[in-house]
From TrEMBL:
Keywords linked to the UniProt accession: Hydrolase
UniProt superkingdom: Eukaryota
InterPro entries for the chain: AB_hydrolase_3, AB_hydrolase_fold, GDXG_lipolytic_enzyme
Domain Alpha/beta hydrolase fold-3: 124-357
Single annotated GO MF: hydrolase activity
Annotated protein name in UniProt: 6-hexanolactone hydrolase
């Protein structure tokens, strides 16, 4: 099996000379058509396009590439996550540390000090098909530095699961559950100091992990645990719900940035935002098909499908859902937030105005420092995190 998104026999893919020539032509045609069509029409876009012209053009180019390139071509162009992480560490002058998770083949990459009291389990997006680029690590690094400046310590365990089509659901969920097991049992973090988080597809699997460790373990992981029953070190049983109402068995919180909660794209926000967002219905449908590979929807691969009752008493203290007003997934995210909040009142749902899908990550490279500071969802996330950590510190001081 390909480990994480490590090189294997079929990853990264090797293209023939003819395939490389075809890819170059595709990239050139995509860039040219975007500049000619959207560059011209964008001048007269009005409310149908993104607020900022640079964002409008960039999102149009990403949509075109997503709709045109195959997963194989994309994976040829984008280096594996671990390579990007190592290059990022070199640039930021810190010692990279990658953890290989042996049971299912995932990996985790540390950012920040492992001795920090709090840790963020961060699952990346990318439709389960694309590796992480620098923008993901910049996002995590910025969060760490922001909280440090406010007097809080946080490290990030950046989870790298096997990309589709080299592995399909529920492999990615199994790898993420194993990553959380590592954080709790081997790295030794207390549950209340552990936060789950993810963007897009990463938020999808983070929500599935939360369900698994609460009241609804995934049956295939349960079956694997039965096979491992004689080897306690290999077991992935992380059922926090088995501990009753013990306060120490709640995770600190979960945040979901532009969560991909279901695969239904026939909603009002798709029609309203199709020329604003970086996502398109076509590419999302293709990535969803690769992920589930013919399996029926369930509460773990499409969290919005889970009954409302599943979210009652989930083992987390606070819940934050962030979305952009200009993203095609907005309608589904809003419906999901309403469902969860009906059973879990400590949920905050915030919509960033004039923001597309996962704007704090996707649009980082388009804005200068001052403009990035105006990305509303990023600021809400930092404030939410700081408040959670301050509340935890106050509770410990009073005990």
């Amino acid at each position: 099996m390909t480990t994480g998104d490590n090189p294997g026999d079929d990853y990264p893919p090797r293209l023939s000379v003819a395939e490389k020539a075809s890819l170059c032509c595709t990239l050139l045609a995509s860039a040219t058509s975007t500049l000619l069509v959207h560059g011209t029409k964008g001048i007269f876009r009005g409310r149908k396009g993104a607020k900022h012209y640079s964002v409008h053009l960039a999102h149009a180019l990403v949509r075109t590439l997503n709709d045109t390139l195959t997963t194989r071509q994309y994976q040829y162009l984008l280096p594996p996550t671990y390579q990007t992480y190592e290059a990022y560490a070199k640039r930021k002058k810190f010692q990279p540390e990658t953890v290989r998770l042996p049971r299912y083949g995932g990996m985790g990459h540390w950012l920040g000090s492992k001795t920090a009291k709090n840790v963020l389990f961060s699952a990346k997006g990318g439709g389960f098909a694309l590796s992480a680029n620098d923008l993901y690590f910049d996002f995590c690094w910025d969060l760490i530095q922001s909280l440090h400046a406010a007097g809080h310590d946080l490290s990030v365990f950046f989870v790298s699961y096997t990309l589709t089509p080299h592995a399909i659901y529920p492999t990615q969920l199994k790898q993420c559950v194993e990553a959380l097991r590592y954080i709790l049992r081997e790295a030794g973090f207390s549950p209340e100091n552990v936060f789950l988080g993810g963007d897009s597809a990463g938020a999808n699997v983070a929500l599935a992990v939360l369900l698994h460790v609460s009241h609804h373990p995934h049956p295939e992981i349960i079956a694997d645990e039965a096979d491992d029953s004689k080897d306690q070190d290999a077991r992935l049983d992380l059922s926090l719900s088995a501990s009753g109402d013990n306060d120490s068995y709640y995770l600190g919180g979960i945040f979901c940035l532009g969560p991909w909660v279901d695969f239904n794209f026939d909603r009002p926000s798709e029609k309203t935002n199709r020329f604003k967002d970086c996502l398109s219905k076509k590419s999302e449908q293709a990535w969803a098909r690769e992920y589930v590979n013919g399996r029926n929807p369930d509460g773990w691969n499409e969290p919005a499908v889970a009954p409302a009752e599943w979210w009652k008493g989930v083992r987390v203290r606070e819940f934050l859902i962030l979305a952009g007003s200009d993203e095609i997934l907005l309608s589904g995210i809003g419906e999901f937030a309403e469902k969860v909040q009906s059973m879990f009142p400590r949920l905050t749902f915030f919509i960033g105005q004039d923001e597309g899908h996962v704007s704090p990550i996707v649009d980082r490279g388009l804005f200068g420092k001052k403009q990035r500071a105006r990305i509303q969802t990023a600021q809400v996330l930092k404030t939410w995190f700081a408040e959670r950590l301050l509340s935890r510190r106050s509770a410990e001081a009073g005990s």
